[in-house]
Amino acid sequence: MTKYLTIISLQIFMLGCFITSRAQKKDSTYVGAIEGVVKDSVHNYVLRSATLSVYKAGDDKLISYQLSNNFGKFQFKELPVGIKLNILMSYVGYQVYKKEFVIPADSRVLDLKMLIAERAENNLEEVKIVAQKAPVEMKGDTLVFNADAFKLDTNATVEDLLRKLAGVTVWSDGLITVNGKKISNLYVEGKPFFGGDPKIAIQNLPKNVVEKIQVYENKESPDKVNPDVNMNIVLKKDKKSGLFGKIGGGYGTDKRYAIDGMLNGYTPKTQVGIIGTHNNVNKTANNVQSLMANSSYKGEGTNYEYQSDFRQRGLNIFTSAGFTLAHEFGKPDRLNTSYFFSNSDNDLKEQVHTVESLNDGNQLIRDNVGTSKNVNRSHNFNSSYNHSSDERNIDANFNIRNSINNSINTQTAVGLNNATGEASQNAARQENSGDQRTIDVNLKLSNKNSYLNSSNKQAKFDTQYAYSNTSGSNNSKRTTDFSTSDPSQNENFNRQYNTSFNNSVHTINLTVPNVGPLSLRYLGVNMEFKNALKVNDNKETAVVGDLDNTIGYVKNSYLTNKSNYSTLSEKPVIGFSKSFRKYLDNRYYKTLRVSLFTEGEVFYQKNASEKVFQRFSEFNFRFLPSVFVDYTHNKASTFNRTYSLNYTTSANYPNVYQLAPLTDSSNVYFLHYGNANLKSDYKQRLEFGFEHNGTRVGSTGRLNLRFWISKIGNYIGDSSRYDALGRRMHYNVNVNGYQDVGYRAEWQQAFKMKANLLELTFASELNYANTPAYINGDEVLQKNLTTYNRLRLSYNFNSLIGFSGSQSISTGTTKQEGNVNYSYKNFGTTGGMSVVWPKSLYWNTNINFNRSTSNYSKPIDFAIWNASIAYRFLKGENAEIKVSALDLLGQNKSIINYGYNNSISTGSVNVLQQYFMLTLAYYPRFFGSTEKKKP
């Protein structure tokens, strides 16, 4: 098998090298370079952000373009030598400058020295000089790319266009950056496009409907030093309406099938979309936008296809449907509504082996075999209204969710005490049926007026009110048959539960900046006030009965109960901040900001219950200060860097489940009790952060680092007592000594070379925690170390070939002082390739090697290999036929391999495995008016 895989991999690699070498031959003369500087003809000062474009002199084909830097300089590389070229310079308020030149083949370098720009004098000279549109230009603070300046395939999408733009990077994970800055929002005609997911816009809209791409900073961004950057797609005047979608279906071996459909239409004021899917190949989604993103047209280039999720547990049948509607009543007012229905049927089987160590060196070993059948049906309706003006923003959101769940779970557990040899077995079955309804209301008002500057003297503030109500019922029946080597310890239960609940939450948040006295403002100190009020009210009624074989179910007076648990949290905050700035226009910007927040928290909780021991009320007050220090250094056209050092405090309060629960004896292996003496804990955390965004054209890098250390006083920890049969009696206690330290790092680097993109990504996480606990009355210190590291490389050549490969490893070690040492490791190696050759024929293949090890089980190895070939046909490549081979080796497994505190678990779960499928799809695409222009 290994030999077979090696031969196939080599063949694919050689095919990629062949196509790459053929394409590279075309660029063998592109070895020249030019440089120069743009200056004003009258005052002789340099012109920053002037547009420079290089064309072939004969056919006016665009070769390259850029903007002059802060010093008016420009430099072009990879230009053809020995042929006539034209350079065009354009700048607002100046005539277009045009010059013909030839780069010598021997020196390969040409210095154009100075390009002198003449001021325009309100004539049409500029239009006469050149017919080409400038590829890129600066209009005020907005960077504008003119789409018609870029010649692409007739079936190209906006994503294909973006990949051609200098300084713009479309990362493999969907992120878009411009000169290293992340695009926070992507709009079409100034509005979110079908929910705002960039993929829906850039993978469905054709390039030829776009007039220009605008990139600009959001002036309303709360961070004025590093404001959000938005992108807006402006459509051509006759292309502001359109329709696109997908109709597809496939059938395969092992009775596998997949059906999906989508139809979206838009006009200048309205967007409407409907979508649905039905499959048994683990293709699922949680909302309408996710379904749309998975049904995109994508365009001409290579793309790794949307495939079955072989990591999902169990076998799944998924059905969903929905619609989305957005309408703009006027520039300030916008209404959005959506509906999503889903039905999932999950059939799961699992086997788990658990080793649990006690403080005396003894071990409890338990083997579980379980089955589960779950059917979940849900309806989700969401509506939002937005009003935006120069004075204020108003947002109103309304959401209704209704779900119905039915499940049957069985589990057989066999336990063994290593020290005593005592064994036990528990056979349990639980049937559940329930329904749940949730209503969410969210209202937000942001007043933009400043008290000092506004004519109506209204203060600037943000206020938000949120209401959530969840109600429903759950009916279940649990049977338990617990048997041991000592018959006197045997237990049998047949228990029925009928539960109804109603939970409501009210939240009010208020932020008012600049509330301090004038004396503070003169010192440059900003004072702000914040307040957060949260009120919870949880009502529950439970009727529980035990089966009496003679008369039926008899009321269980202990578990039958009616309760009302409510909490109130009030958090007033007064904050002080001061900034120190140093800058030089168009060179650098440095700022240091120090912020101090003095927060007090009042927390009140009360529980009313039919059970006397559950009745309690308590009042808590905590002072929770925090300090934030941020330093930002932005260097023009080079990098943006942010350093931060934060100290925060927080409190966690014990709830009714920890203080006074009702203990259900039918859960024989885990009996949870309450501790009425529990107190709140107090957490202190110190965190250092560093963020780097490279802004050099052609080499975009992003680095994000976080290091932290924290400790918790009066930690709410675990106390467990085990009997000889492995039954665990658990309750919570306050204990000191909890500490954790860790880091999270993510590095991304992209090298853009004309139409080629090389990406490197490295992610790393580490967390080490000392967790104090009690086992059988003795205090123990449990040390947990978890790590995750992943390195990924991808390369896309001219949208014809795509390679990717990654290596990941996750590890875990848990130690209990003087007693136990568990460890586990999970390895993953992936590789993939996508090729378009010849035109309209798409080849995809990927393989994932997995290995899991632990010190209490043998290593488990398996590989998942998928491959497909698709052919696009019809005039606009609207139709597709595809053959897919999934899990070719038939080795897919879902492995359970983890450890925590004094236990480690290993096992497996049934999963989707090998199948082959034939799929047909049609992508309807109509954009703009179909009427012919009159002569």
Task: Describe the sheet with the most strands.
Answer: 26 strands, antiparallel, barrel
Number of helices: 7
Query: Would you tell me the overall average pLDDT?
Result: 87
Overall 3D form: globular
Give the termini distance in whole angstroms: 67 Å
* Alpha-beta content class: mainly beta
Describe it for me?
A hairpin with a 4-residue loop joins β33 (681-694) and β34 (699-713). Mean pLDDT is 87; it is low at 1-8, 18-26, 123-131 and 451-457. The strands form four sheets. This protein has a 26-stranded antiparallel barrel. The protein is 6% helix and 64% strand. By secondary structure, it is mainly β.
Q: What keyword list fits this structure?
A:
935 residues, mainly beta, 26-stranded antiparallel beta barrel, 6% helix, globular, disordered N terminus
